[in-house]
Design brief:
164 residues; mainly alpha; (apollo) hypothetical protein; coiled coil
Length: 164
């Protein structure tokens, strides 16, 4: 069936469309995942890959802190216990030790410090990026920079006013 369409095609663009359609049909038939159209040529995101990795690391560390805190407060569900064992893997610490609550607290504090350091790294990058963009706008169009600085901050990131 594909041969008849290929023989009837008049130019390379039409042949390309026919072959692409056939490939999509085969992928759908066998259940293969198809990458989104246009992603091969365009940039995937403006967010750097290292920043995404750090944000994922922060999310995992926060989840681990939650599980460790839950275990410390007496939750002995199998999933929680498994997570705590994995958190202390390779450290010679057993969950049956008498000072396990102190070890849990130390591990939680360690994770909190790591999260703070990772967050600071992202914040430094964001601030530097903002300054860099403002400098570039200032060099090209000062009026536009000053207008953007006059606009009120979004998301309540400015100083708090009133009671509360």
């Amino acid at each position: 069936m594909l041969v008849t369409y290929l023989e009837a095609s008049r130019d390379l663009c039409e042949t390309d469309s026919i072959l692409f359609g056939a490939a999509v049909a085969v992928c759908r038939f066998i259940g293969a995942k198809i990458p989104m159209a246009g992603h091969a040529t365009t940039q995937s995101s403006a967010i750097p890959a290292w920043k995404k990795r750090i944000e994922d690391r922060i999310a995992k560390a926060r989840a681990l802190i939650g599980r460790l805190t839950s275990f410390r407060s007496g939750n002995n569900r199998p999933r929680i216990v498994r997570t705590v064992r994995m958190a202390f893997a390779g450290t010679n610490i057993s969950l049956s030790q008498p000072d396990i609550t102190q070890k849990l607290t130390e591990r939680i504090e360690d994770l909190k410090q790591k999260i703070a350091a990772w967050g600071k790294r992202i914040r430094r990058f964001t601030e530097r990026s903002r300054r860099f963009n403002q400098n570039r706008v200032f060099q090209s169009d000062q009026k536009r920079l000053y207008k953007s600085l006059e606009r009120p901050k979004v998301c309540g990131s400015g100083p708090r006013t009133g009671s509360g």
